[in-house]
From TrEMBL:
Transmembrane segments annotated in the record for this chain: none
Alphabetic keyword roster: Amino-acid transport, ATP-binding, Nucleotide-binding, Transport
Family: Belongs to the ABC transporter superfamily.
Protein name in UniProt: ABC transporter ATP-binding protein
Length: 227
């Protein structure tokens, strides 16, 4: 699906990613401390940033210079940090904004409401009044309405109450079961490794470790991150 090979990228003259390679996998977790370059890597994956060296492959095709909208059209979806939603619109209206004009738009909304019962419960509530966790579920639901092959999630559990963290973890595992690939940035190592098939650890823009996911990898990762 997505393969990122030997990437150099940054902002202006500042190079942030140095020779970064991310293996393919159903769920791939990107771990690392603040400022390690995790968000930069996701921005590169969706095309908001172009590499100065290296390749981004999607379904075997080099998409390194493809614009973000074209990547979305090919089946990539990106949920940035921060539980973004249109706060003055209701939950349902937020979903309709993405679903309108799509064949089966109504069915796509219903499927996401079935996945996230809180969204159905609060369908008529303004998104600005939802909890952070519910808004994150809304952001993920909006992305899923585009029927992606690959969902890119930037810190989906940041600042969210533990019950919804568990629900989001369940969702990620379900998605993998449905054949949707996930590229995930997370600060919660246990959460990320439990869900991940593969992981990479980034430090100062370099990959310092890569391996198979699963909770057994947690101590190795914590040692690599010195925490
Ligand atoms: N738009 C930008 N212009 C210049 N430098 C940037 C920009 N965005 C990020 N950086 C720098 O790139 C480096 C990596 O930032 P990035 O946000 O990718 O890290 P991160 O691992 O996602 O951190 P966090 O966990 O805090 O979100 C940092 O040194 C940051 O200051």
């Amino acid at each position: 699906m997505l393969e990122i090979t030997d990437i150099e990228a940054g902002y202006g003259r500042t190079r942030v990613l140095h020779g970064v390679t991310v293996p393919a996998g159903k769920v791939v977790a990107v771990l690392g401390h603040n400022g390690a370059g995790k968000t930069t890597l996701l921005r590169l994956a969706i095309g908001l940033l172009k590499p100065t060296k290296g390749r981004v492959l999607f379904d075997g095709e080099d998409i390194s210079s493809l614009a973000p909208n074209k990547r979305v059209a090919r089946g990539m979806a990106y949920v940035p940090q921060g539980q973004q939603a249109f706060g003055q619109l209701t939950t349902l209206e937020n979903l309709q904004l993405v679903a309108d004009g799509r064949r089966r738009g109504k069915a796509l909304i219903e499927a996401q409401m079935a996945r996230f019962p809180a969204l159905e419960k609060f369908a008529t509530r303004k998104a600005g009044l939802l909890s952070g966790g519910q808004r994150q579920q809304l952001a993920i639901a909006r992305a899923l309405i585009t029927e992606p092959k690959l969902l890119i999630l930037d810190e989906p559990t940041e600042g969210i109450q533990p019950t919804i963290v568990a629900e989001i973890e369940q969702t990620i595992m379900q998605l993998a079961g449905e054949g949707i690939h996930v590229l995930l940035v997370e600060q919660h190592i246990g959460f990320a490794l439990e869900a991940a098939e593969r992981y990479v650890v980034l430090a100062s823009g370099f990959v310092t470790q890569t391996g198979d996911g699963g909770l057994a990898a947690a101590s190795t990762v914590r040692a690599a991150m010195a925490i």
